[in-house]
Amino acid sequence: MVGDIARFLLNTVFTLFGAALLLRAWLQVVRMPPYNPVSNAVLQATNWIVLPLRRILPSTRNIDWASIVAAIIAAVIYVVAMVWLAGVDPLSLMPTLLIVALLTVIKWALNLIIWLTILMALLSWLNPRSPAMPILYQLTAPFLNPLRRFVPQLGGIDLSPILLFVIVQVLLMVVTRAAVSLTLFGI
């Protein structure tokens, strides 16, 4: 039971932190201004690891390499800790664990897309004039706009978030299955 609690806490902390690092990178890609509350919170939560890495890995073409590498480092630490908690020697699986760490980063990114899409859909129904709506729209538009070309609106209802949700869920299943098959247990 203690092991289950430890795995749950590790999963929660590392998933939130990994998502924050990926969100930081995504905020730069979509050119989100740093003075809005979302950007500011993400920057404050991740500056301690990203700023030192930025001295080594500068951004190029709106790609925040320091945030991406920080997410990979966090994923490696997370995977090693989860394997160690499962009672397996992490050093014996090191090449495989690096692949699983990359799959974990992909999983965090897919989860981030799901949560941003759900937040945007809920706010569009509950409070479409919310100050968060422009931010969420800017973050999800690159994923939703291509789908909007193929999915017709039914009575003014945009079904593209539902289609995106289904696509991302399928991708999550594939990534999770690949990680499980590489480690023989869930991460």
TrEMBL record:
Keywords: Membrane, Transmembrane, Transmembrane helix. It comes from the Bacteria. The keyword Disulfide bond does not apply. The chain crosses the membrane at residues 7-27, 65-85, 97-126, 162-185. One of its GO terms (cellular component) is membrane. The keyword Zinc does not apply. InterPro entries: CCB3/YggT (IPR003425). This is YggT family protein.
